[in-house]
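FAQ: What does the model actually see?

It sees only this:
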Amino acid sequence: MKKIFVINGHQYYPFAEGKLNKTFVDKATELFKGEGYEVKYTATEKEYNVDEEIEKFLWADVVFVQSPLNWMGISWSFKKYLDEVLTAGMMGKLSAGDGRSAETPKENYGLGGLLDAKYMFSFTANAPKEAFNDPNEKFFKGISEDDLLLPMHLNMEWFGLKPLATFFAYDVMKNADIPIDLIRFDKHIKEELIQKI
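And it is asked to produce this:
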């Protein structure tokens, strides 16, 4: 039985209560359970136990992250969660330090990961799809969604996790089309996660 750890990185704001991210979490969980997968869940804005969270990472075949894009990154509650959980697991449980050794102190930085699992990011964003991958767009200057998320990808790689394709729901505050996003999400989960693990 495949084991999937679902993380909801939403942070409540009066103008963004978290309903959309929870909808994606619920849809993903329904799809995973429909395939017979075992699912564990954490909402980073709620209380959690650091040791229990480390065990969830150790347990999982896939870490599935659902989060809003907040100021070109993740929410403060999600960042706090990563700071607490990943830092606590960095020196032995999730990684062997930073991957370097006394014999080669200038080599292999970031390659001490001990996990043998995959991860998938799913983000909700105010930015339209057209803001990415277009050098004529002056703000992002042609970068992709995954370029923007590079620090998060590096965080996962640090611990040995391998990427599955990222999902984005675009323009969710001004021009949302949630029914279409959910159809795309369903297809993405089936094709890019379920069929690939």
